[in-house]
Design goal:
Layout lengths: L6 E6 L5 H13 L4 E2 L1 H4 L8 H10 L1 E8 L1 H4 L2 H13 L8 E5 L18 E2 L5 H8 L5 H105 L9 H7 L9 H10 L3 H20 L1
Parallel strand pairs: 1-2, 1-3, 3-4, 4-5
């Protein structure tokens, strides 16, 4: 919202108190207050009526600060200023009139019109600060301290920020290293898994082949065992047969004779004899050869 007042404070004083007023004016200006200071302000209004300029400045001032001294209270101009403000604009707490009592000036010395109004006393070393607060100004010392504290806080925050940024950079580097290690181990795991999968496939293939071979060998073994049992039974049958009946080579095959006559079954001509029978050639010659061999073996036993 736009401020309707040109000044925050109308400073009313007499020229003889200028040395007292000037430091107060400076403090108020430093605190951010817009002050109507007649020496400075009226120079800008040259050519206007003095009274009209004062009256306009009173209307454009939110508050009124009256410098109370023996000299100012005896000034007709000062009196006309505070009476004009009091009767036309004074409306606390929106528009205040504050008497500032200089050293040696008492509250009882004030005109009856002003005695019920809250005053500031120069004997109080904090009076100017209190008055500035009442007028809505800023405590400069407090502001300086706050600013100094803020500067220190800002410096501390800046240092903390630098530390945090350094930590963040370290975390980023650690993260990058960690991600590299993860990628490395993932690749290692992937390679190992692929290798193991290949080994498993090879093993499964070999296992399948081995099982097939085992199965074949088992079947072959079973077949051989059956053959052995069969031939054992056949041999038993042949032995029983030859024990019960006289030996007659003409009733047997050459193979039967050779396989069941212990004395000649290891004969060096075995393969030749078997081949002769197989080819159907000279059966009689083969039988004669067997009989001759049997005679030799029998004669050798008798001797």
């Amino acid at each position: 919202m736009e401020d309707i007042f040109e000044y925050d404070v109308f400073l009313s004083y007499t020229a003889s108190d200028e040395k007292i007023v000037k430091p107060i004016w400076q403090e108020m200006c430093l605190s951010g207050l817009r002050v109507f200071w007649s020496v400075a302000a009226l120079k800008e209004k040259l050519g206007e009526s003095w009274f009209d300029a004062i009256e306009e400045s009173l209307a454009q001032s939110r508050n009124f600060l009256l410098i109370c001294s023996t000299a100012s209270m005896n000034s007709k101009w000062v009196k006309s200023e505070y009476e004009a403000f009091f009767h036309n604009f004074y409306n606390p707490p929106l528009r205040k009139l504050i008497p500032f009592l200089t050293k040696g000036y008492e509250n009882s010395d004030l005109p009856v019109l002003l005695r019920q109004i809250q005053t500031c006393n120069a004997d109080d070393k904090n009076s100017i600060k209190k008055m500035i607060q009442m007028l809505g100004g800023v405590d400069i010392e407090k502001l300086k301290n706050e600013l100094s504290n803020k500067v220190k806080e800002n410096h501390d925050l800046h240092e903390k920020l630098e530390i945090l940024e350094a930590e963040i950079e370290n975390i980023k580097k650690e993260k990058e290293d960690f991600e590299k290690r993860i990628n490395f181990y993932q690749n290692e795991i992937k390679t190992t898994v692929l290798k193991k999968e290949k080994e498993v496939i090879i093993f499964q293939k070999k296992n399948k082949e081995l099982k097939s071979k085992i199965k074949e060998q088992t079947e072959e073994k079973e077949k051989l065992e059956k053959d052995i049992i069969f031939y054992q039974d056949e041999i038993k049958k042949m032995k029983n047969k030859y024990l019960k009946i006289p030996f007659n080579p003409n009733e047997l095959t050459i193979h039967d004779i050779l396989m069941n006559v212990q004395e000649i079954k290891n004969d060096s001509d075995l393969k030749q004899i078997l081949q002769m029978e197989k080819d159907g050639k000279n059966r009689a010659g083969a039988l004669k050869h067997i009989n001759d061999r049997m005679k030799i073996v029998t004669k050798a036993k008798k001797n």
